């Protein structure tokens, strides 16, 4: 098992992976770091956990879109316009993700109090 230290959002994280997967892991971490950089460029100044959550929500949203497109292709249907490789900062999406993150934090606080 290989051990790689990746840098995301200005923080170093040691991560284990299968031998030979180091480059893939580094590339994935670079994608998350790019997302965090875009969020920071939009003026968001949150802690590491919140920034990672927002980046994960962006990636999950894109994954859902890609899964829908793959299902449409498998069914022989048409696919919407291709997804851009590096999206421009979307302030509306950032605001929506902030509201989602606030809701998640409120739920977590309620669970901690219970």
From TrEMBL:
<dbReference type="GO" id="GO:0051301">
    <property type="term" value="P:cell division"/>
</dbReference>
<dbReference type="InterPro" id="IPR007838">
    <property type="entry name" value="Cell_div_ZapA-like"/>
</dbReference>
<keyword id="KW-0131">Cell cycle</keyword>
<dbReference type="InterPro" id="IPR042233">
    <property type="entry name" value="Cell_div_ZapA_N"/>
</dbReference>
<keyword id="KW-0132">Cell division</keyword>
<dbReference type="Pfam" id="PF05164">
    <property type="entry name" value="ZapA"/>
</dbReference>
<protein>
    <submittedName>
        <fullName>Cell division protein ZapA</fullName>
    </submittedName>
</protein>
<dbReference type="InterPro" id="IPR036192">
    <property type="entry name" value="Cell_div_ZapA-like_sf"/>
</dbReference>
């Amino acid at each position: 098992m290989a051990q790689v230290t990746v840098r995301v959002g200005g923080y170093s994280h040691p991560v284990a992976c299968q031998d030979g997967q180091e480059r893939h892991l580094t590339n994935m971490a670079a994608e998350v770091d790019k997302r965090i950089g875009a969020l920071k460029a939009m003026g968001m100044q949150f802690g590491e956990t919140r920034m990672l959550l927002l980046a994960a929500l962006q990636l999950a949203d894109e994954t859902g879109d890609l899964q829908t497109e793959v299902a449409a292709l498998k069914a022989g249907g048409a696919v919407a316009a291709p997804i851009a490789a590096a999206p421009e900062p979307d302030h509306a999406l950032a605001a929506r993700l902030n509201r989602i993150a606030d809701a998640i934090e409120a739920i977590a606080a309620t669970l901690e109090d219970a």
